Known about the structure:
With about 230 residues, the protein is α+β, with helices and mostly antiparallel strands. Helices cover about 30% and strands about 25% of the residues. The protein has helices at about 5-20, 35-45, 55-65, 115-130, 205-220; strands at about 25-30, 75, 80-85, 90-95, 95, 100, 105, 145, 165-180, 185-195. It starts with a helix and ends in an 8-residue tail after the last helix.
Amino acid sequence: MRVIGMRRRIAENMAAAKRHIPHFTYVDEIDVTALEAMRADLNAHRGERPKLTLLPLLIVAMCRTLPDFPMLNARYDDEAGVVTRAGRVHVGMATQTDAGLTVPVIRDAQDRNVWQLATEIARLAGAARASKLTPQELGGGTITVTSLGPLGGIATTPVINRPEVAIIGPNKIVERPVFRGDDIVRAKLMNLSISCDHRVVDGWDAASYVQALKTYLETPVLLFAD
């Protein structure tokens, strides 16, 4: 069977990314017990607004932390050998459709609150599945998020969306017993993956960035602090 159409474009893009980018992946475990409790409370009082998933909350955390890690919110020109750090956060959102994987872009995510992000995520996902995305909605990303949603997984090693230099992958939330001092309590835990371009991002920077994200996700009131 010949590989044609969108599947061929996906194959070419993935092959080019793996061929040109020296990937490395860092994974850490995050306790999202408080975040999930907050998300449930927000959804219980959402009214006519869209139901919150983890994704808009993660994007808020990304926007809060990326100013301290500008090397991650960037694009790398292979031929020119030039890194362009972005002043704004345009988040690519890897979306599975019947035709294959596509990556619409949430523009100026740093200017949107969690409800506005949820609305835009739903709109772009719907347009992607209906094959109605415009060229403007498919380009210009500065960093990408990919999630398998309910399928989850223990850990992923996401492929970078070239010419970006980083991609973040939240994994499945699981419930496990953990120690809190001398007590054993039930906690909701999630592994968070980040793949980076080692030409631009050092391992220390990637690990430090995930630790910054971890602070926000484990103390979710910070997501709404001025």
